[in-house]
Amino acid sequence: xxxIAINLKDVSVEFELHKENISGFKEFIIKxxxxxxxxxxxxxxxxxxxxxxxGEVVGILGFNGAGKSTxxxxxxxxxxxxxxxxxxxxxxxxxxxxxxxxxxxxxARENIYLNGAILGYSRKFIERKFDDIVDFAEIHSFLDVxxxxxxxxxxxxxxxxxxxxxxxxxxxxxxxxxxxxxxxxQKCEERIKSMISDDTTVIIVxxxxxxxxxxxxxxxxxxxxxxxxxxxVEEVCNQYMNLQTHPNxxxxxxx
Length: 255
Fold this sequence. Notes:
Largest sheet: 6 strands, mixed
Shape: globular
Helix content: 25-40%
Strand order of the largest sheet: 5-6-7-3-8-9
């Protein structure tokens, strides 16, 4: 099909969940030293292997808690796997958590420079692209308003506009297309479609089956931290809908 942009081999992510209420950091340290902490292992991802090719648009489906956001963070390099290997090719623009990288006390103008720096853009680059960012986000009248006074939809506009002001090699989108008004969602979809023609690899997590069907070529279905299905988008969407209708019926895990 082409060059592999993302390759995960036997990736697992394990967290320790503490089962008792701890009032502060001091109590946590004392209990840890005394080995009195009661915890259990939680497998957010369990032996995930998958490949995504350059220029593909893929969807990630699954119920809340299935491991979708953890998978995106692993691909973006935000989290390190407990086991397994992750390989990515090129610059990644992750839109994983709304407001991540923003200081809500600062104005939109200040946050554009701040978030641009976090994404690795120079100040001169942001200055050149500043008008393009503001035009796409449509926040001209609110540039000098602190972000804490913005709605989540307006924050999404800014985050998406900054992350896509240049075409990354890999774009990761987590539910951002579900935030904001219909007009903004259409603008985001059009920008993503323009990236597709330039061989940008796009990963989309959305609870909207229609968005996944309309924009993706392939899809992956997660359940309980495991990859249980992958393939043509229509087939995987149908499996996901069947899992919603019959939640007690487990699909056969991929071998």
